[in-house]
Amino acid sequence: MTSKRQGSRFAGPAIVTGAGQGLGRAFAKALAAERVPVAVADLDAGSAERVAAEITTQGGRAIGLGIDVSDQASTESMAAAVREQLGPPAILVNNAAIFSTLAMRAFTEIPLEEWTRVLNVNVTGAFLCARAVIPAMAEQGRGKIVNLSSTTVFLGRPNYLHYVTSKAAVIGMTRALASEVGPLGVTVNAIAPGSTETEVERATITRADRERLAATSALKRVQVPDDLLGALLFFASADSDFVTGQTLIVDGGISFN
How far is CA 225 from CA 25, 196, 228, 246, in A? Predict the structure, then answer.
């Protein structure tokens, strides 16, 4: 792999959750291309291991880990495994979330179990992962946490109340956690992507739907994972050492904040 940046611009090993597919996979590969050792973490251990193998085949360094971000013991085991196999984790990308499998429905029709599961994964999962890795970051006096929110928060998108609520909570968590861990040398920022076309199929949005949405944007094209990599690498690198508690919208100009 080739790198456009110096490896020293990145604090050390990275963990990317939900990296067995979709945006997480793209994020893990982008960090690996910058010579960052990457832990590919996913609920589906097989998918995590396949992405890790893709990275190592291309000359990077990666491990695949099966993890349930909503389970405290699982996140603590993840942090320990990364420390043992790659070194103290210095970058955390909280990407794991429930979305693609959700059906659009009125809030009155969302089962309580589904509501609870979405918040447990999308919000509590980010909290538990951060809590698991921040001690290692504090030891180094440097760390980067990048949370994934969504532009649905700014658009108030209907029929996904649990998802939109969870992603709004991520923004609040980003701000409050940044205040708490700033003295430790840890920055916490968020990226809010628009609807992004990946290899993950979704029954609730077609290519035609994406094209109609893209037509409402300033840039007039469908968003793809590569559109988010610049923001990710900025927040994960020394370039953002004096930026914390911020949420960057990356949606081609569909929403403005």
Answer: 9, 7, 6, 20
Residue 6 neighbours by CB under 8 Å, 6+ apart: none
Does position 1 have pLDDT exceeding 70, yes or no?
Answer: no
| Distance between CA atoms of residues 184 and 206, nearest Å | 44
Q: Confidence band (pLDDT; 50, 70, 90) for 200?
A: confident
Query: Are the C-beta atoms of residues 52 and 82 closer than 8 Å to each other?
Result: no
Query: Is residue 163 among the annotated active site residues?
Result: yes
Confidence of residue 203 (pLDDT cuts 50, 70, 90): low
Q: Which amino acid is at 140?
A: Q
What is the separation of C-alpha 29 from the centre of its chain, rounded to a whole number of angstroms?
A: 13
Contacts of 121 (CB under 8 A, 6+ apart): 69, 70, 96, 97, 98
What's domain 7-250's superfamily in CATH? NAD(P)-binding Rossmann-like Domain (3.40.50.720)
What distance in Å separates the CA atoms of residue 134 and residue 123, rounded to the nearest whole number?
A: 17
Residue whose C-alpha is closest to residue 91's, from 241, 224, 226 = 241
Catalytic option among 95, 163, 227, 237: 163
Q: Could you tell me the two tokens for 98?
A: 């429930």
Q: Which of 4-8, 31-35, 50-54, 222-226 has the lowest mean pLDDT?
A: 4-8
Please give the single-letter amino acid code of residue 117: R
